[in-house]
Design a protein that fits this description.
- It contains 5 helices and 5 strands.
- The protein is α/β, with parallel strands linked by helices.
- The chain has one domain: Hypothetical Protein Ychn, Chain: A, CATH 3.40.1260.10.
- A 5-stranded parallel beta sheet has the order 4-3-2-1-5, with helices on both faces.
- The relative contact order is 0.19.
Length: 153
């Protein structure tokens, strides 16, 4: 009996990721203030919290709705060319978003279906952004990988 308990414990430990939390943000908002608060500052805060407790936070962001505009390189060649507030903030936002990808290892996934509808070319999207066939598939995949779901609408 003790051998079985030990064997089950060993098998369980192979599949457990001790100290790793997972979250997927469903990013749909085009509001700059909400984006900065919930994504740029929020993710950094949450990462710091878990690292301070000797845990890791794996983070993914699924981009769709009005949030495409934060991930476009050249606004002039996009549906957002007339967004003056975004144009004024874009240089700073682009640096902060790139830092989220590299420093905080945030995985950004963009809905490819609406990209086509909005006529946003992949070459006009930051290189670290990965494409998913649509936002629902991206969210389903992450939730099936045991990521907690947080909406940012």
């Amino acid at each position: 009996m003790k051998k079985w308990i030990l064997a089950l414990a060993l098998v369980g430990s192979l599949f457990a990721e001790d100290g790793v939390k997972k979250v997927v943000f469903d990013l749909k908002t085009g509001n700059i203030e909400t984006f900065e608060k919930k994504v740029l500052r929020g993710i950094a805060f949450h990462k710091g919290h878990y690292e301070g407790n000797l845990e890791k936070l794996d983070t993914a962001v699924v981009i769709h709705g009005d949030a495409y505009k934060f991930f476009v390189k050249d606004l002039k060649n996009s549906p957002y060319k007339n967004d003056k507030k975004l144009a004024a903030a874009q240089e700073q936002l682009s640096k902060r978003i790139a830092s989220m990808s590299s420093t905080y290892e945030v995985e950004f996934l963009m809905c490819e279906a609406t990209m086509r509808t909005l006529k946003i070319d992949k070459s006009n999207v930051y290189d670290f952004v990965k494409l998913t066939p649509n936002s629902t598939i991206g969210l389903i995949d992450k939730q099936n990988e045991h990521f907690a779901y947080i909406p940012i609408h």
